[in-house]
Hints:
Helix content is about 45%, strand content about 10%. With about 325 residues, it is of the alpha/beta class.
Amino acid sequence: MACLSEESCWVVSLSKMLSEDDKQNFMDSTTKSSTAKILDKVFPVYALGISNPTGSEVEPLLQLSNSADDPIWDAIREEAKLVAESEPILSSFLYASILSHDCLEQALGFVLANRLQNPTLLATQLMDIFYDVMTHDKTIQRSIRLDVQAFLDRDPACLSYCSALLYLKGYHSLQVHRVAHALWSQGRKVLALALQSRISEVFGVDIHPAAQIGEGILLDHGTGVVIGETAVVGNRVSMMHAVTLGGTGKEVGDRHPKVGEGALIGASVTILGNIKIGHGAMIAAGSLVLKDVPPHSIVAGIPAKVIGYVDEQDPCLSMKHDVTKDFI
């Protein structure tokens, strides 16, 4: 990913951080129309909620790594500068974590390495691994940006891109998994399993490195999430804490759930076996799912049963998962 020039296109991410006066001052120097134009060009698929992208919509995103425009990274740097000014005690931390780096891949590698290091697995070693994998994998480069956009858009507790990068362990565990999955695919399975172990120990998230996870994913909180070896999670899925995508016994082979695009999975949901969760389905908190779930359906209970259908194409974007409310 090219290291990038600073563009003034980060209005949306700062709206949660700035006071009304600050936002007005910023808008005086940056027009809404130019910001929307840049974001529409670079993030047309997930950040703006387009559920069925065409080839022409996806192409600018695929070309991001060859472009000098990276509004996500520009926003992260500007946010870090603002925080450093308002909280000087964090200035050294922000410089080391963000402002001293040339691109998002470097900064993310630094943050993850320092979260996962231990006396025998040094931060410098981990940084080299993370940066090498991310800079040679355009899919990961795209995913780390779409994921951080998903956190900002869907998690009301996420104040900014910067806060997701620095503090949210759901985001951290997801990005370390992406590196581990790349290593697993390269045949470096022992190293991939070592990273899985560290993710579990540090973040309380256990994702097998062979599991296939799409982009634009939200792992809200992340604590207690377990995803098995042959599980598949589609694009734009939102998943709350303590979700299990597990098997049903000691069988080998393809034995874990397949979650369709745009699904919303509530807290403490358990999904067992090689079953399909349809596109845009919503699973209520605490449910035990043992059978296929139809697309755009709402299921709840132990065992889970269909109780209605959602009108939305992708409930993962609206995050409405209270089945007591009249939105079905």
